Amino acid sequence: MSEEPDRAPSPSQRRAQDAVRDLGAARPDPAFRARLREDFVAGRIAPPPPRLVDAGRTTPWLRNGLAAAAALAIVLGALAANRAPAWRLVGVEGVGDAIVDGRPIPLDHAAELARALRHAVHVVTPDSGMVELVKPGVLAVSIDMQTDVTLPAGPGRWWGRHDRARVANGYAFYATGRAFHGATLDVETPEVRARVTGTELGVLRDDEQGTCVCVMNGRVHVQRWRGGIPGGVDVPAGQRCINLPNGAQYLKPILEYTVEHLHHLNARSATLLQR
């Protein structure tokens, strides 16, 4: 494509060009130059004011990023506030090593044991030792000797109010606190699921004898995985539900051993449970 040839300026354009040429170079006013020099030497010339960012004129990506960061901070704060408190070690008896999440820790190393148990999940006690733990305001648990348990994380404060624990073998005792109100805890064994809604109970489990759920206060619903009473059975205070390996399920009075153990647990944890 050929370029269009330059056009000659019109008479009006030539007159404008001539007027501009006749203006000459602009010269500064001598009085203004002298005044500017004096102000500079005296330090009277102030720096320009800082430029303020108009929030209404920020770029969309910056506004979206700030909003996302604020939303994330709110979510993380809510999750942290909803989480149950960590376990606190309140009692240790006996000798030997407790296995905390696969790590052996001597019972007489109280500080190390307490740190390991704060967020522990799986605990196995030695042949001649036991530990007692409390989630302040929520739940206390006593893990007797030769016991293999999975600890509950603790029900959430506002949501996630259902929790689970497990007794694979041995004796574990539970007492709920004031903040547990409205929550549920399922304590499971190979034979049963015991649903706790606020009570004091012991769960005794043996490979040959099956599972015994002893209730000292409140009421616990016990349902077998296989066999047993259809729909399960409600175990009232002062009773125990025996669940034999062959599928049989029946009630009898609570064991005195369980009552003594729960009284001992209450003595150590009642203040922390805020009863």
Provide an overview of this structure.
It contains five helices and 16 strands. 28% of the residues are buried. It has a 16-stranded mixed β-sheet that branches. The protein has 275 residues and is of the alpha+beta class. The protein folds into two domains: 55-84; 86-273, Jelly Rolls, CATH 2.60.120.
Bulk shape: elongated
The CA-CA distance between the termini, in Å, is 95 Å
| CATH fold descriptor of the largest domain | Jelly Rolls
Order of helices and strands: HHHEEEHEEEEEEEEEEEEEH
| Whole-number count of domains | 2
Low-confidence blocks of residues: 1-5
Report strand %. 25-35%
Summarize the model shown.
The chain is an alpha+beta fold.
Highlighted features:
275 residues; alpha+beta; Jelly Rolls; 2 domains; 16-stranded mixed sheet; 5 helices; 16 strands; 35% strand; elongated
Secondary-structure map:
Elements (H helix, E strand, L loop, with lengths): L10 H11 L8 H13 L17 H23 L5 E8 L1 E4 L2 E4 L3 H8 L4 E3 L3 E8 L3 E5 L4 E3 L11 E15 L7 E5 L3 E5 L3 E7 L3 E8 L1 E6 L8 E4 L2 E5 L5 E5 L2 H18 L2
Parallel strand pairs: 8-9
Antiparallel strand pairs: 1-5, 2-3, 2-4, 4-7, 5-6, 6-8, 7-8, 8-11, 9-10, 10-13, 11-12, 12-15, 13-14, 15-16
